[in-house]
Design goal:
globular; Isochorismatase-like_dom; 194 residues; three-stranded parallel sheet; 9 strands; EC 3.5.1.19; Isochorismatase_Nicotinamidase; Isochorismatase-like_sf; alpha/beta
Length: 194
């Protein structure tokens, strides 16, 4: 729930502000809250501004990595307002913040990171004996969904809190839903969680 992903941000998701009160109520039901935070260098490989003549949301083959990359508007640059959590999101000193996307050559959608740029989230879940997670936030079809997929892959019981997340686009939302269902991720609404 960073400013750049909320409405009005450089990569604002429609309906993002309406889920903040739901997330704030939901978080009070848990003793451990982990926040994922994109924290990019300004020359990050995924920023369309760093690829002359390319269009936003197009795919581009990256020579340095040999991978295809969706090109995004510049977002969540370390230390900027856009990278900060939205002012209305309840954040407590006890929350654990996992920063991702620090390596400018790799785009890490999952809060666990990617193959070449891992975060310490997997280690955190092991150290805290976490075997079940509930995912929510922005955006369902990218960061939230990929975090859920990786968590399921490493054997955690995973719940997607459907009313506490929003997608970038309907097409990618449908694709992500299929992947999540195939991975055994369970769908739940915040009011069902006691």
């Amino acid at each position: 729930m960073q400013n750049d992903f909320c409405e009005g941000g450089s990569l604002g998701v429609t309906g993002s502000l309406e889920i903040i009160p739901l997330i704030n109520r939901l978080r009070d039901k848990f003793s451990i809250v982990i926040l994922s935070q994109d924290w990019h260098k300004s020359h990050h490989i995924s920023f369309v501004d760093n690829h002359e003549g390319k269009e936003v949301f197009s795919k581009h083959d990256i020579q340095e990595t040999g991978k295809s990359q969706v090109l995004w508007p510049t977002h969540a640059v370390e230390g900027t307002f856009g990278a900060e959590f939205h002012k209305d999101l309840k954040v407590l000193p006890s929350d654990i913040v996992v920063r991702k996307g620090l390596n400018h050559l790799y785009d890490s959608y999952s809060a666990f990171g990617c193959k070449n740029d891992r975060t310490n989230l997997e280690e955190i879940t092991r150290n805290l004996n976490i075997d079940k997670i509930y995912t929510c936030g922005l955006a369902y079809d990218y960061c939230v969904g990929n975090t859920a997929l990786y968590a399921a892959k490493i054997g955690l019981e995973v719940y997607m809190v459907s009313d506490c997340t929003k997608p970038v686009a309907e097409g990618t939302k449908e694709e992500m839903t299929k992947k999540l269902q195939q991975s055994g991720v369970k769908f739940i609404n915040s009011y069902e969680i006691e």
